[in-house]
């Protein structure tokens, strides 16, 4: 074993199993213009393995978005350290794809151009990035939407384009902030299924923020619960129910009750 491999941690059959994402004692304090301080997160530590699908669950104000924004590199931790693939996060990077709740597509670009935006910034040529956009739009179930503008798409279609756009730079980790919260129940269920299929097909590491307990159980290999004021890890639960996970499946309700208890909710849905 090389010195580098030893530093990276345990090795199985020559493959390092160092976590892809490491959040180490991270805190964040917001300071207002008037000097008021809000401690959004306090001493949060979390490791996410390569290929793992982790849901961050918690009530409003527990710091889920702040944590995701710090991993994305949009917000700097007040203390602690975040590393992705061993590199300290110091700002946004194409290796971290982000999907927001409000779609945030460029309205002046077509769906295809939105998906091709990251590759274009990375210097990919026109033919290659058109091909990337075509492939990814097909992957999210929109093979014929390349020339349509966001205003011509439904909410569910926009979010599919946003997922394709986030995948276009082949990020190491996909960061998703309540991406399906604004969608109706049927569209939401369809996108959940599609996201799981993409997760499986592309072996993507996913960190998915939600305040919806059923969604967290449906999607996650693990559910990490944050408690509010200040945000701290209150529970870290492995979901070992077989997929696809239906609410009527044995074990679903017991896990639901356990997580509801952990976030201090009667029910949130
Ligand atoms: N820009 C900001 N300035 C000051 N305080 C902020 C700012 N952004 C968030 N906060 C505060 O930090 C805490 C965590 O907010 P955050 O948005 O990260 O929580 P959340 O769990 O994502 O909430 P929600 O589910 O409602 O989106 C809250 O108390 C919030 O009021």
UniProtKB/TrEMBL annotation:
Pfam family, one: ABC_tran
Keyword annotations from UniProtKB, A to Z: ATP-binding, Nucleotide-binding, Transport
PROSITE patterns membership: ABC_TRANSPORTER_1 (PS00211), ABC_TRANSPORTER_2 (PS50893)
Stated name of the protein: ABC transporter ATP-binding protein
InterPro entries cross-referenced by the UniProt entry: AAA+_ATPase (IPR003593), ABC_transporter-like_ATP-bd (IPR003439), ABC_transporter-like_CS (IPR017871), ABC_transporter_ATP-bind (IPR050166), P-loop_NTPase (IPR027417)
Family as reported in the entry's similarity comment: Belongs to the ABC transporter superfamily.
Domain spans labelled ABC transporter: 21-253
Record-linked SUPFAM superfamilies: P-loop containing nucleoside triphosphate hydrolases
GO molecular function: ATP binding; ATP hydrolysis activity
């Amino acid at each position: 074993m090389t010195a580098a491999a030893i530093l990276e941690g345990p090795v199985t059959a020559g493959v390092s199993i160092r976590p892809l994402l490491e959040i180490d004692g991270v805190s964040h304090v917001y300071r207002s213009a008037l000097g008021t301080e809000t401690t959004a997160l306090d001493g949060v530590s979390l490791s996410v393995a390569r290929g793992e699908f982790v849901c961050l669950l918690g009530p409003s104000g527990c710091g889920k978005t702040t944590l995701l924004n710090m991993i994305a590199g949009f917000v700097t931790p007040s203390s602690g350290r975040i590393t992705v693939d061993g590199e300290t996060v110091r700002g946004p990077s194409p290796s971290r794809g982000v999907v927001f709740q409000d779609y945030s597509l460029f309205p002046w670009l077509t769906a295809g151009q939105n998906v091709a935006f990251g590759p274009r910034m990375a210097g990919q040529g026109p033919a290659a990035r058109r091909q990337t956009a075509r492939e990814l739009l097909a992957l999210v179930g929109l093979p014929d939407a390349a020339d349509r503008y966001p205003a011509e798409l439904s909410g569910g279609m926009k979010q599919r384009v946003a997922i394709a756009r986030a995948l276009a730079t082949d990020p190491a980790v996909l960061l998703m902030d309540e991406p399906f919260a604004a969608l109706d129940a049927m569209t939401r269920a369809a996108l959940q299924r599609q996201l799981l299929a993409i997760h499986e097909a592309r072996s993507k590491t996913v960190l998915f923020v939600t305040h919806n307990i059923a969604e967290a159980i449906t999607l996650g290999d693990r559910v990490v619960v944050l408690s509010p004021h200040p945000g701290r890890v209150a529970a870290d639960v492995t979901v070992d129910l077989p997929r696809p996970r239906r609410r009527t499946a044995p074990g679903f309700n017991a896990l639901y009750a356990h997580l509801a208890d952990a976030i201090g909710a009667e029910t949130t849905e």
